[in-house]
Amino acid sequence: MTRAWRGASVAAMRVLAATASKARLKRAAAAVGAALRAGLDLALPRLCAACREPVDGPGLCPACWSKLSFIGRPYCERLGVPFVYDPGPGILSMEAIADPPAYNRARAAVRFDEISRALVHALKYGDRLDLAPMLGRWIGHAGRELLAGADALVPVPLHWRRLWARRFNQSAMLAAAVAAETGVPVAGGALKRVKATAQQVGLSRSERAANVQGAFRVPDAGKPAIIGRRLVLIEDGPKGRSL
């Protein structure tokens, strides 16, 4: 009995010592991490994502944040285009009634203005991949009703030549950020761009539709990921819309 009790006591002391050692290691690691972050902030101060002025934390400076125009209700329930006044719940815009889109609903995070344009262009053309998580959070918030019932996210693919030139697909980066925020998986191979097209910038809605006619197809390997499923298409958006 005595030997068994002593053995149990020694084992308990070892467990306590190991637990205390792990706690000390965690505290030491946290302290080292804080010191490294402080040193990095001194060497490379955080800058506003839009104007590049120094800021205290990640994101935008107060001046740029105040210029953003986030889109909220009232808006067209089909297109997500904001109304200048509240016509009542469930109202569609004249554009949605006259020329209904092929999709069920669309949502946009922000209006395409000076700041949002700078952010979108920095992501697409300036290799600012660090912006994707922030923009993904905005998209997730704007499209929360759509995402709540979604089975998968489908990023709009680039043609292989443009992907080779740009080195990344901004829509795929945004989709990954939205997936991290919402838990909705990304079906990256569900859609393929089979035809190179001119850029959509400056085109009207009908011109954009004609421009991408026949540009996409669902490959055989991607069909199981989308058949019978509720999908949300992610793109950086016409006229700067994000979702």
Please explain how this structure is put together:
This protein is mainly α and 243 residues long. It has two domains: 44 residues; 144 residues, no CATH class. The chain is 44% helix and 5% strand. The chain contains nine helices and four strands; from the N terminus they run ααααααβααβαββ. The chain has a two-stranded parallel ribbon with strand order 1-4. It has a two-stranded antiparallel ribbon with strand order 2-3. Helix 5 packs across helix 8. The longest helix has 42 residues. The C terminus is likely disordered.
Radius of gyration: 25 Å
For the record, give the distance between the C-alpha atoms at the N and C termini, rounded to a whole number.
70 Å
- Choose one word for the global shape: globular
Helix content: 40-55%
Mean pLDDT: 80
Give a short account of the largest sheet.
2 strands, parallel
List keywords for this structure.
disordered C terminus, mainly alpha, 4 strands, two-stranded parallel ribbon, 2 domains, two-stranded antiparallel sheet, 243 residues
Summarize the structure.
It contains nine helices and four strands; from the N terminus they run ααααααβααβαββ.
